[in-house]
């Protein structure tokens, strides 16, 4: 018995020594990664303590510790807001539709671009489609409102020339989501396709050769070679996107928002900005943000779990 | 390896702490600036001994803070105060503010755009409650007693006054009806006095200029912030000074009549079809390209638009139009727009007595005068009994150059301003507009300060009411919801909790004003 115990502890010591040796061997790598680890500890992990103010009546001058605990008061306040479900639904739908329409767009674009044989033309198209990504949201939004304006906009001038009635696109909740999503696709499609184009170039050319031998046409090559080969990339991106389902970019929604479209355009983020923080309610704002993050993380876990059980690709 | 990691971690922590400490001490410890002994001998200054006062204020990009500004020297000579300014870019202002606040190292004076922060942090002990120090503030007391209705808005939820209102430049916020006087005179159109005349004027202009939209305004429903007053109502909750209760404008009959009126203007294309989505740029373009003849905006447009348009057509003349009275309970008045939200708060620290004395000086006749005009022979001269700013070497003088050159009327450099100093530089049109706009503005609606519980009612019930109003009012004007459903809409507002919301405001306001 005693013998066994010593041998176990001996093994432990040996294992420890091994680990120590491993660390020693990789010390330069560790030194190199140290700044990154420190960065995450100092700027991402330590500040997480700040979420405790969601459960407090936070008073900045008194500090974190002196502010009193109030439990779930701020979470309950949120659900007293009569439009809370409309707001949650808007946030979800806006994200969901963006995902449905916006997610396949860069993939399709990348697949099409991949078939372009003229290198020059391909590069030109690529560059042009990247450009909108670098235009600031404020500018995109004012471009959208200018183009869609019923009195001076290009689109309405065109509609009028066809002999049809002018449409006040921004003046009605009907078109709001479509405008939001389509302008999002326009500005993001080129940039989003970079990743898929990169994945496509990594496909083994012998696959194409044998496909041609078997008499596959372009469409069949795309379906049977291109898509399966970039599927892991697609799934990884999809999982990541699902993790953001409950957060929409605040800036663009806020800029496109107006009195008329409030019923479809009020999302959690704009509510926090316009009402939650009106009277310096730090704790209330934090509580909503925390709730939002928890929902997002559970979506992420769920998507990852599903993906792992359906096929082998997953984030972890 | 572990030790190395630990040492590095510790080093970084120590370093970051040290840098915090350095910042703290530089912000709090008053330092004697050089040159104090030269001017210290003057006996007529506010303080006998040299005093240093620190101040935090955002600077304006067009006139960034300069260490050698004349105004700092002026303050030194008049008061014996070395005024040390921590000037921060306005975009990063609240970052700096919050850092100094949470580390308890705010300077003596803190400038802010509104009193909201001061009230919240003042109640927690960061700033002095001026009501407790009134005996030391004779000059401010005079202002306070004469301007009670304005000071009420600056008070906190607990009835404390945690900031000095910074006043005198509010005139730049004055708004009103602006019209094309030259066009009116050309067609012999009289200034309208009521809603029918107003409508007829728009009709007539539309006939004369079929491509135009005679009335144009921006910020969609926010137009009613100013305009609703002339209809005898308000676009939000408002305080009825006679009945002494809080009321909600957008459920009143006057408000319905106003929406019906704008619906008519919309249907007959007397306002642009996209009135509810016009950007400032589009709105400005419509007016300056002679496609609109009436608008409601800042009176300064009289000059900015006028000068721009006169380059092509010298006959253009934009003027202030006395507000027509609209509807059954209409009045020839517009919403109070001489808004003065800016404040300066005083930190509770060892320098408090000196800081209060200095702030009070800013409200004294001498303080007001020198901080508005500077000194005779230096910044202005007197001709025909009138003060005139001395032009710079380039022959130019305007509100911007005064600020750039001397630092006068920049953030933190005055508390009570004499607006004569600025309006003296304005055109005749603007002077007239300024005078009329003040004459035709209604009494100010006070701002209510809410405590934590009330604030959460505001964020839920209040938010729902505001949203419902904005959505439905647009629909009423666009005709998407018939006005016959007005009573139903009022009922919806009550279901959302309008009465409870108004009760909350009444309670909060009573406490804020000390029950009176």
Q: What is the C-level CATH assignment of the largest domain in chain B?
A: Alpha Beta
- Report Rg of chain B: 26 Å
CATH topology of the largest domain in chain A: MetI-like fold
Compute the gyration radius of chain A: what is it?
27 Å
Globally, the shape of chain A reads flat
Q: Report the helical percentage of chain A.
A: over 70%
Strand content of chain A is: under 5%
- In DSSP terms, counting alpha (H) and pi (I) runs of 4 or more, how many helices of chain A? 15
Unreliable parts of chain A? none
Which class of secondary structure composition applies to the elements of chain B? alpha+beta
The CATH topology of the largest domain in chain B = D-Maltodextrin-Binding Protein, domain 2
At CATH level 2, the architecture of the largest domain in chain A is Orthogonal Bundle
Strand order of the largest sheet of chain B: 2-1-3-10-4
> Average pLDDT of chain B, to the nearest integer?
90
> Looking at this structure, what is the CATH superfamily of the largest domain in chain B?
Periplasmic binding protein-like II
Which pair of protein chains has the largest interface, and what are the residue counts? A-B, 47 and 51 residues
Distance between the termini of chain A: 41 Å
The stretches of 5 or more residues of chain B where confidence is low (pLDDT under 50) are 14-42
Q: Categorize the overall geometry of chain B.
A: globular
Written description of the protein model:
- The complex is a heterodimer of chains A (316) and B (516).
- By secondary structure, chain A is mainly alpha-helical.
- Chain A has 15 helices and 2 strands.
- In chain A, strands 1-2 form a two-stranded antiparallel ribbon.
- The longest helix of chain A has 29 residues, at 282-310.
- Chain A starts with a helix and ends in a 6-residue tail after the last helix.
- The model of chain A has no long low-confidence stretch (mean pLDDT 88).
- With 516 residues, chain B is an alpha+beta fold.
- Chain B folds into 2 domains: 27-170 and 340-418, 3-Layer(aba) Sandwich (D-Maltodextrin-Binding Protein, domain 2); 175-336 and 435-516, Periplasmic binding protein-like II (D-Maltodextrin-Binding Protein, domain 2), CATH 3.40.190.
- In chain B, 44% of the residues lie in helices and 11% in strands.
- Chain B is built from 21 helices and 12 strands.
- Chain B has helices at 2-28, 36-39, 70-79, 93-102, 116-123, 138-146, 148-151, 181-186, 195-208, 223-227, 253-267, 280-288, 301-310, 352-362, 365-373, 399-406, 420-423, 428-439, 452-478, 486-496, 498-512; strands at 51-59, 81-89, 109-112, 164-165, 175-180, 237-240, 245-248, 294-298, 318-321, 343-346, 380-383, 386-389.
- In chain B, the strands form 4 sheets. In chain B, strands 2-1-3-10-4 form a 5-stranded mixed sheet.
- The radius of gyration of chain B is 26 Å and the shape is globular.
- Chains A and B meet through helix 2, helix 3, helix 7 and helix 14 of A and helix 1, helix 4, helix 5, helix 12 and helix 19 of B.
């Amino acid at each position: 018995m005693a013998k066994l115990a010593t041998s176990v502890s001996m093994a432990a010591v040996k294992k420890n020594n091994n680990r120590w040796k491993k660390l020693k061997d990789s010390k330069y790598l560790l030194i190199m990664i140290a700044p990154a680890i420190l960065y995450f500890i100092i700027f991402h992990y330590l500040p997480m303590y700040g979420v405790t103010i969601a459960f407090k009546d936070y008073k900045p001058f008194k500090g974190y510790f002196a502010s009193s605990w109030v439990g779930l008061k701020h979470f309950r306040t949120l659900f007293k807001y009569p439009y809370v479900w409309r707001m949650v639904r808007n946030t979800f739908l806006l994200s969901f539709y963006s995902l449905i329409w916006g997610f396949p767009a860069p993939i399709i674009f990348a697949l099409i671009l991949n078939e372009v044989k003229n290198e020059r033309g391909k590069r030109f198209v690529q560059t042009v489609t990247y450009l909108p990504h670098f235009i600031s949201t404020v500018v995109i939004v004012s471009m959208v409102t200018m183009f869609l304006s019923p009195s001076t906009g290009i689109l309405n001038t065109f509609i009028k020339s066809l002999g049809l009635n002018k449409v006040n696109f921004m003046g009605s909740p009907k078109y709001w989501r479509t405008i939001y999503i389509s302008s999002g696709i326009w500005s993001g499609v080129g940039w989003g396709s970079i990743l898929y184009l990169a994945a496509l170039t990594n496909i083994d050319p012998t696959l194409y050769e044998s496909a041609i031998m078997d008499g596959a046409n372009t469409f069949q090559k795309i379906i049977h070679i291109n898509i399966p080969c970039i599927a892991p990339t697609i799934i990884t991106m999809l999982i990541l996107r699902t993790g953001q389902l409950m957060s929409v970019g605040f800036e663009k929604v806020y800029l496109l928002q107006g009195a008329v479209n409030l019923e479809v355009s009020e999302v959690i983020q704009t509510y926090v900005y316009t009402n939650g923080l009106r009277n310096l309610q730090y704790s209330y704002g934090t509580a909503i943000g925390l709730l939002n993050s928890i929902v997002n993380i559970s979506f992420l876990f769920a998507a990852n779990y599903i993906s792992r059980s359906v096929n082998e690709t997953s984030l972890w | 390896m572990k030790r190395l990691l630990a040492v590095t971690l510790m080093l970084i922590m120590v370093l970051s702490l040290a840098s915090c400490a350095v910042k703290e001490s530089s912000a709090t410890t008053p330092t004697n600036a050089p040159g104090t002994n030269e001017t210290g001998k003057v006996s007529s200054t506010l303080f006998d001994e040299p005093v240093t006062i620190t101040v935090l204020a955002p600077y304006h990009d067009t006139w960034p803070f300069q260490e050698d500004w004349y105004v700092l020297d002026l303050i030194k000579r008049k008061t014996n105060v070395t005024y040390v300014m921590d000037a921060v870019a306005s975009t990063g202002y609240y970052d700096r503010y919050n850092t100094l606040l949470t580390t308890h190292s705010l300077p003596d004076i803190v400038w802010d755009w509104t009193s909201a922060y001061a009230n919240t942090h003042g109640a927690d002990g960061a700033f002095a409650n001026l009501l407790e120090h009134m005996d030391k503030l004779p000059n401010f007391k005079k202002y306070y007693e004469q301007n009670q209705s304005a000071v009420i808005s600056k008070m906190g939820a607990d009835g404390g006054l945690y900031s000095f209102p910074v006043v005198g430049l509010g005139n730049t916020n004055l708004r009103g009806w602006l019209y094309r006087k030259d066009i009116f005179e050309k067609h012999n159109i009289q200034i309208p006095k009521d809603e029918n005349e107003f409508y007829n004027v728009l009709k007539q202009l539309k006939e004369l200029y079929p491509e135009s939209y005679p009335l144009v305004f921006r910020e969609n429903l926010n137009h009613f912030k100013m305009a609703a007053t002339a209809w005898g109502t308000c676009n939000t909750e408002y305080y009825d000074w006679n009945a002494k209760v809080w009321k909600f404008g957008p459920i009143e009959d006057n408000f319905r009549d106003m929406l019906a009126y704008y619906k008519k203007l919309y249907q007959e294309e007397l306002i642009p079809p996209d009135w509810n989505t016009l950007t400032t740029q589009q709105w400005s373009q419509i007016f300056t390209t002679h496609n609109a003849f009436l608008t409601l905006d800042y009176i300064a447009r009289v000059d900015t638009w006028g000068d721009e348009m006169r380059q092509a057509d010298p006959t253009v003349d934009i003027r202030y139009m006395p507000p027509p009275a609209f509807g059954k309970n209409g009045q020839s008045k517009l919403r109070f727009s001489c808004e003065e939200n800016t404040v300066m708060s005083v930190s509770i620290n060892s320098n408090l007595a000196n800081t209060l004395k200095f702030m009070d000086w800013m409200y004294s006749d001498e303080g007001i005068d020198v901080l508005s005009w500077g000194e005779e022979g230096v910044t202005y001269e007197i001709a025909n009994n009138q003060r005139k700013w001395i032009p710079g070497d380039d022959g130019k003088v305007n509100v911007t150059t005064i600020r750039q050159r001397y630092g006068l009327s920049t953030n933190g450099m005055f508390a009570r301003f004499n607006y004569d100093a600025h309006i003296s530089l304005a055109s005749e049109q603007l002077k007239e507009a300024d005078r009329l706009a003040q004459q035709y503005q209604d009494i100010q609606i006070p701002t209510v300060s809410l405590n934590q519980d009330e604030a959460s009612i505001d964020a839920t019930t209040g938010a729902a009411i505001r949203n419902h109003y904005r959505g439905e009012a647009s629909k009423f004007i666009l005709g998407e919801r018939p006005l016959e459903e007005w009573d139903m809409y009022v009922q919806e507002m009550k279901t959302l909790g309008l009465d409870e919301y108004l009760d909350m405001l009444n309670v909060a306001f009573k406490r804020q004003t000390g029950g009176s």
